[in-house]
């Protein structure tokens, strides 16, 4: 019902009551509308989180200049293929020779005659030893003396060409003999051992064994590989003796020099 019709139908107190009710309803509607508009405005004015651009704001790492921070002296890293090879000081590339791989100077030119005369000198029978099984040998210290006499102390050296290989019973390693800055020979040494405590000694024996094998290429004590010379030497300087082991009483036959006596743990006996 519209307001004019309502006014005509109501009189006196009824009209006043109806008008108050209409005004109260209108006021409440306007108040509710105002609060809704205020809430909507606040929601629209709420700040949204800022979106950051990773491409534009990400800082770039600083670039350092290698020339300003590099040390004045450099060292070469440890050789990868030689696990127990110590690092060596770096030299210019054109002056440095990697003896673990290089064959520099091999067969380039003969050694001087004075060196060759020392290396090829006949072996003195008084310096030759014989093992109990009949194998002739020259003590390795005498090979070193010949090299020192021919090239001088410091004029030659042994260079490892591989890492040490340690098996449950043997140590082996490859070495190169370098004389007067030239490669002469490459050989692999070996040495047996019987307990882990003997590995350091076996390592040194392996090095000496490689030295003896390398010296064959220089002609040092070459008679020890000559079958005719060996037979003649045995007939003239050695003998076979029957011996008994003093611990286990085992009897056998061994070779000794004629000017030597049978030593411990053997004692000479009649078979």
TrEMBL record:
UniProt keyword annotations, A-Z: DNA damage, DNA repair, DNA-binding, Mitochondrion, Mitochondrion nucleoid, Transit peptide
Family matches, as Pfam families: Mgm101p (PF06420)
Ranges of biased composition (kind: Low complexity): 24-78
Protein name: Mitochondrial genome maintenance protein MGM101
Region of interest called Disordered, as start-end residue ranges on this chain: 16-95
One of the GO biological process terms: interstrand cross-link repair
Subcellular location: Mitochondrion matrix, Mitochondrion nucleoid
InterPro entries: Mgm101
Any one GO molecular function term: single-stranded DNA binding
One GO CC annotation: mitochondrial chromosome
Family: Belongs to the MGM101 family.
């Amino acid at each position: 019902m519209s307001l004019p019709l309502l006014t005509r139908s109501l009189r006196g107190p009824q009209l006043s009551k109806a008008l108050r009710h209409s005004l109260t309803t209108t006021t409440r509607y306007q108040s509710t509308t105002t609060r809704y508009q205020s809430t909507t405005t606040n929601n629209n004015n709420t700040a949204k989180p800022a979106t950051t651009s990773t491409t534009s704001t990400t800082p770039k790492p600083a670039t350092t200049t290698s020339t300003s921070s590099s040390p004045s002296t450099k060292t070469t890293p440890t050789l990868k293929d030689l696990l127990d090879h110590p690092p060596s000081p770096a030299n210019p590339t054109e002056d440095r020779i990697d003896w673990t791989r290089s064959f520099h100077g091999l067969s380039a030119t003969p050694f001087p005659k004075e060196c060759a005369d020392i290396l090829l000198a006949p072996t003195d029978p008084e310096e030759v030893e014989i093992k109990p099984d009949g194998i002739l040998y020259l003590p390795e210290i005498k090979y070193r003396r010949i090299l020192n006499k021919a090239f001088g102390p410091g004029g030659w050296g042994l260079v490892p060409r591989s890492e040490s290989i340690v098996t449950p019973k043997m140590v082996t390693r490859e070495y190169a003999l370098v004389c007067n800055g030239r490669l002469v020979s490459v050989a692999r040494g070996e040495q047996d051992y019987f307990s882990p405590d003997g590995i350091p000694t076996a390592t040194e024996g392996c090095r000496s064994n490689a030295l003896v094998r390398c010296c064959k290429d220089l002609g040092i004590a070459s008679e020890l590989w000559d079958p005719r010379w060996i037979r003649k030497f045995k007939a003239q300087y050695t003998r076979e003796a029957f011996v008994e082991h003093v611990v286990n009483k085992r009897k056998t036959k061994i070779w000794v020099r004629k000017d030597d006596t049978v030593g411990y743990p053997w004692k000479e006996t009649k078979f």
